Amino acid sequence: MRQKHTISLLIIAVGAAAAAMLPLIWAAISALRPSAEIFRYLSPLSIHTFVPTEVTFQNLVALWSGPFARAMLNSALVTAITVALGLVICSMAAFALAALRYRGRGVVFAAMIISFLIPFDSIAVPLAQVFRDFNLQNSYAGLILPGIGNGLAVFLLRQFFLGIPRELAEAAMVDGLGWFGIFTRIYVPLSKPALIGAALILFVFQWQAYLWPLLIAPDPDYHVASVAIASFAGQYDVDYGQMFGGAVFTALLPMAVLLVFQRYFIASFATTGSKD
C-alpha cells in the first residue's frame, strides 16, 4: 500500500514538473523557429506546437552577436560580486544578531525583518535618486550595492547560527580567541548549508533584478540580461525569436545552480523554524 502511495506521489510530481516546464520548452523551441511561425501553431494546439516544421539558428546568432552577450557578462559579473560581498556582510550581521549580547539587539532584528518584508520596488525610485546624487549612476557599484545587504539572507544565517552551541564560543574565548576568530574559525566552518542557502538567495535576487538596473544603469554598456531582453520589444515591433532565446538562456544558469545546490538550500531552511 505504501509503495502504491509513493508511486502515485511520484507520478503527480513528475506531471507537475512537466507542466511547469512546458512554457520554457515552448519558448526554447520558438527561439529556433522563423519569426512568422512562432505563434502559428499555438492555437489550436497540435504536435507542431512543440515540434517545429522548420529549424533556424538565425535568432540565436543575432542574439549572441548583439548587445545581449555583453548584458549576460554584466549579469554574471554583478551577480558574482554581489554573492561574494553579500555573504561576507550578511554572515557578519547574522553573527552579531545571534552570538553577541548587547542592548537593542531585538530592535535591530525587528528592523531587519521589516527590511525584507517591504518590497524593494517600492523604494527603488527614491533610492535611485540618492545613488545619482553620489554619482553611482551607470556604474557596477550602483548595480551591486543594493543587493549585498539582503534581510532574508541575514535572517536565514542568524537562525542557523542560533543552533550552534554557545559553549563552543565560550571555550574558544577561554583559549584566547576573539569574536572575529570565533566567527571565522567556528561559526563559518559549521554553517556550510546555511551559507550556500544564503548565497542562492543573493544570487536569485540579483540575477532576476529588472527595475533597479533599469533605473540606475540606462547606459547600454551596463545593461544586464533582464533589461536586454526587454529591449527586444520596440515601439512598433517585437523580436520574439531573440526575446525567447534570451529568456531561455537567462533561465538556464539559475536552474542549473539551484539543481546542484538544492539539498543545501533545503537543509538551510529546515533549521530556521524553532529558534528565538
Describe this structure in words.
The chain has 276 residues and is mostly helical. 68% of the residues lie in helices and 0% in strands. The protein has 13 helices and no strands. Helix 3 (68-98) packs parallel to helix 7 and helix 4 (105-117) crosses helix 7 (151-162). The chain starts with a helix and ends in a 7-residue tail after the last helix. The model has no long low-confidence stretch (mean pLDDT 87).
Key phrases:
276 residues, mainly alpha
What is the mean predicted local confidence, pLDDT? 87
Give the percentage of residues in beta strands. Answer: under 5%
Catalogue the unreliable spans.
none
- The helix fraction, in percent, is 55-70%
Helix- and strand-based class?
mainly alpha
* Sheet with most strands: none
Shape: globular
Q: Would you report the number of β strands?
A: 0
Q: What is the helix/strand order?
A: HHHHHHHHHHHHH
Radius of gyration: 23 Å
For the termini, the CA-CA separation is 40 Å
Determine the number of helices (DSSP H or I, runs of at least 4 residues).
Answer: 13
